[in-house]
Design brief:
The complex is a heterodimer of chains A (503) and B (98). Chain A has 503 residues and is an alpha+beta fold. Chain A is built from 16 helices and 15 strands. Chain A has 3 domains: 306 residues, no CATH class; 111 residues, no CATH class; 58 residues, Arc Repressor Mutant, subunit A, CATH 1.10.10.410. In chain B, a hairpin with a 2-residue loop joins strand 2 and strand 3. The chains are: A alpha+beta (503), B mainly alpha (98). Strand 9 of chain A pairs antiparallel with strand 3 of chain B. Chain B: It holds the Pfam family GatC.
């Protein structure tokens, strides 16, 4: 295999316009599989959540999960799609051991939802409309473990092991129409689209859409056409791109690679490609040719789905406020910039901040703690913000203790540290650790006198007009009171005692 | 005129992972062509107003509630497997040597 020397991104965009097609698979959060009553709980023992239906045993019959259909309709409606009045499932036949039936139950030419769009907001606030081709229902495959090859890869493996717990979990596949006109912003549009779709899916409550857990994954189709042309080029399909950042990187890499191949007079091979997290590159996978003849036909074991219009309209009334509109509303309420709101969204802090405000904290305090101390802790411990062992109510309680003067910021950080360490709720941590602002003026006065006496040189400088040196004395008092004093009050007291006024 | 060629039968056999000899291909191609021809006569009878049928029962929207039902035990699930390892179905090498 020859390694193509990449063309710079700028050079690629100077000569070509990218065209993208994004296929996103979302695993629904139903309790049971799409066509049988097996549990979808994660982390179960291998092959402990299977039955004759999802194992494809003779004589078994599938029955569709009502919540699966309902979720598909909700997703379709939220994507401004038309909902089919009548549609069927189809068998997609292929031989691969991840499906014990030798076919995947999917939808072919009769998707449940079609012709929609999703408006996505880029980082500078520009709105880009992504047209939706279709959203259809299907089922997930089993999990393969490849044995005997290097680092679990299928190449060179001597045999493979299959766990079918995941086989049959409902999936919705959402396919865009070709995305044109994004130009150099194509990778950013791809990322923003997947991000917006994820927020939408979460807001609908149909899936947690955690990409790092494979609950949502994206295939990036990309081709280039010479500037001025309207004929699409040959596309490549980069499979299973599993983070927002990777979606952007994969699109960017493929633009550069396609341009390099085309510039050198070569032709793009229509193939699937694998994305590599380490360096953001892609490498060739299967060549998509006629061998991939799925011989779709209508699934004879399932009857058609014909959602009543009344049901569809009823579901429409349950749709939540669209995430993008809600974010803009919150942004205005909180009085933060587009950029800050983007950071809050990227940190996964929107809902936590909303809940903290709901528990009584002022919005600036809620933002400050989640985006400061807690974001840092999450980062350091490699956890998502909502996985930290602290609730919005507890954060609101800390904010209330600061507002009432019982805690200063430094003590509040210690309280949060204690809550995260499992020492109990904020009030318990305050009691156990003895964290209270020293507001007893007598005790403070003594500490201030001691600090002045112990740092006579500095005290003289301050008396002589070097007010900035007061920091050292404040530090000494804070140290003596183990951080439990109100620093601003300490400073006032020191200046008072030294007979100096600020400024 | 609908029908099926020997090449198409060979292609389908490959997709279905069926190994057919040359004689068998000749034999099945002829038989399948006859069958397809016979079924095609139905299309001659059906007018535009007769929609294709994929199911003989006039049913739609047969659904089940999203309620967990007991699964097989792993032992039961694996009981028909020709080979198993680590409580998983063991299958032969998927990709040949490249």
């Amino acid at each position: 295999m020859t390694v193509t020397e990449l063309v710079s991104y700028e050079a690629a965009l100077a000569g070509y316009d990218p065209v993208m097609g994004l296929e996103v698979h979302v695993e629904l959060g139903t309790k049971t599989k799409m066509f049988c009553g097996c549990s979808t709980e994660l982390g179960a023992e291998p092959n402990s959540q299977t039955c004759p239906t999802c194992l494809g045993l003779p004589g078994s019959l599938p029955v569709v999960n009502a919540i699966g259909i309902e979720s598909a309709i909700k997703i379709g409606l939220a994507l401004n799609c038309e909902i089919a009045e009548w549609c069927r499932f189809a068998r997609k036949n292929y031989f691969y051991p991840d499906m014990p039936k030798n076919f995947q139950t999917s939808q072919y030419d009769e998707p449940i939802a079609f012709n929609g769009h999703l408006d996505v907001q880029l980082e500078d606030g520009e709105i880009f409309r992504v047209e939706i081709e279709r959203a259809h229902m299907e089922e997930d495959t089993g999990k393969s473990t490849h044995v005997g090859g290097a680092t679990g890869r299928i190449h060179g493996a001597s045999h493979s092991l299959l766990d079918y717990n995941r086989a049959g979990i409902p999936l919705i596949e959402i396919v865009t129409k070709p995305i044109t006109g994004a130009g150099e912003r194509a990778p950013e549009v791809a990322k923003a689209y997947v991000a917006e779709l994820r927020e939408l899916i979460k807001a609908l409550g149909v899936s947690e859409a955690r990409m790092e857990m494979g609950q949502m994954r994206c295939d990036v189709n990309l081709s280039l056409m010479p500037k001025g042309s309207t004929t699409f080029g040959t596309r490549s399909e980069t499979k299973n791109v599993n983070s927002l950042r990777s979606v952007e990187r994969a699109a960017r890499f493929e633009i550069q690679r396609h341009a390099a191949v085309l510039e050198s007079g070569g032709t793009i091979v229509q193939e699937t490609r694998h994305f590599h997290e380490e360096d953001g590159s892609t490498t060739a996978g299967r060549i998509k040719d006629n061998a991939e003849d799925y011989r779709y036909f209508p699934e004879p074991d399932l009857v058609p789905v014909a959602p009543a219009r009344e049901w569809v309209e009823e579901l429409r009334t349950t749709l939540p406020e669209l995430p993008r509109l809600r974010r803009n509303r919150l942004r205005e309420e909180w009085g933060v910039s587009e950029h800050d709101m983007q950071s809050i969204l990227n940190a996964g802090a929107v809902e936590l901040i909303v809940a903290t405000i709901g528990a009584g904290a002022p919005s600036d305090q809620a933002r400050k703690w989640w985006m400061g101390e807690l974001a840092r802790n999450a980062n350091e411990s490699g956890r998502a913000l909502d996985e930290l062992p602290i609730t919005p109510e507890q954060v609101a309680r800390v904010a209330a203790l600061v507002a009432s003067g019982d805690l200063n910021d430094k003590l509040a950080r210690q309280v949060i540290e204690g809550v995260l360490a499992g020492e109990g709720d904020p009030d318990t941590v305050v009691d156990k650790r003895g964290l209270k602002v020293v507001s007893d003026e007598g005790a403070l006065g003594t500490a201030v006198d001691e600090a002045i006496a112990g740092n006579a040189g500095i005290a003289d400088k301050i008396r002589g007009g070097k007010v900035a040196a007061v920091g050292a004395l404040v530090g000494a008092v804070m140290k003596a009171t183990r951080g439990q004093a109100d620093a601003a009050r300490v400073k006032e007291l020191i200046l008072e005692k030294l007979g100096v006024s600020e400024g | 005129m609908p029908g099926i060629t020997r090449e198409e039968v060979a292609h389908l056999a490959r997709l279905a992972r069926l190994e057919l000899s040359g004689d068998e291909l000749d034999h099945f191609a002829g038989q399948l062509d006859d069958i397809i021809g016979a079924v095609a006569r139905v299309a001659e009878v059906a007018e535009q107003d007769v929609p294709p049928t994929s199911h003989p029962l006039p049913l739609t929207n047969v659904m089940r509630a999203d309620e967990v039902r007991p699964s097989l035990t792993p032992e039961q699930a694996l009981s028909g497997a020709p080979a198993q390892e680590q409580q998983r179905f063991k299958v032969p090498q998927i990709l040949g040597e490249d």
